[in-house]
């Protein structure tokens, strides 16, 4: 995410004095709630969905994720890259390519 976007999310929260409501547990709950709303976009038809609605719900998830990263004092790039290192080790290309099997089944 660009720094300009991150700053805008932070300013939105700051201007409304909402940080007081942003305990990690509340943000984690909000991520799950918004993710469920994202999933709802595909509830009855996984091919014909409203792309604009999907984008709105995905944005909500991402905003809450950034808020949680801020609250926990973690760098999203750092934690994503660390997780990608772990994923690459669990799912080497030569074993995982074209397969949906879990790492322990490769």
Task: Provide tags for this entry.
106 residues; 67% helix; 5 helices; mainly alpha
Structural description of this entry:
The chain has 106 residues and is mainly alpha-helical. 67% of the residues lie in helices and 0% in strands. It is built from five helices and no strands. The chain has helices at 3-15, 24-40, 51-72, 76-90, 93-96. Helix 2 packs antiparallel against helix 3 (51-72). The longest helix has 22 residues, at 51-72. The two termini are 33 Å apart. The mean pLDDT is 97.
Percent range of helical residues: 55-70%
The percentage of residues in β strands lies in under 5%
SSE arrangement, N to C: HHHHH
Structural class: mainly alpha
Major β-sheet, in short? none
- The count of DSSP E runs of length 2 or more, i.e. the number of strands, is 0
Cα shape? globular
N-to-C CA distance: 33 Å
By DSSP (H or I, 4+ residues per run), the number of helices equals 5
**Low-confidence segments, ≥5 residues, pLDDT <50?**
none
Mean pLDDT: 97
Determine Rg (CA atoms, Å): 17 Å
Topology summary:
Blueprint: H1 3-15, H2 24-40, H3 51-72, H4 76-90, H5 93-96
Concise summary:
The chain has five helices and no strands.
């Amino acid at each position: 995410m660009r720094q300009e976007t991150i700053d805008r999310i932070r300013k939105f929260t700051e201007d409304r004095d909402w940080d007081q409501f942003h305990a990690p547990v509340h943000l984690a709950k909000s991520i799950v709630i918004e993710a469920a709303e994202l999933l709802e976009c595909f509830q009855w038809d996984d091919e014909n969905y409203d792309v604009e609605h999907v984008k709105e719900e995905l944005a909500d998830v991402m905003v809450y994720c950034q808020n949680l990263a801020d609250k926990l004092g973690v760098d999203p790039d750092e934690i994503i890259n660390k997780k990608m290192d772990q994923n690459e080790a669990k799912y080497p290309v030569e074993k995982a390519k074209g397969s949906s099997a879990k790492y322990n089944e490769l």
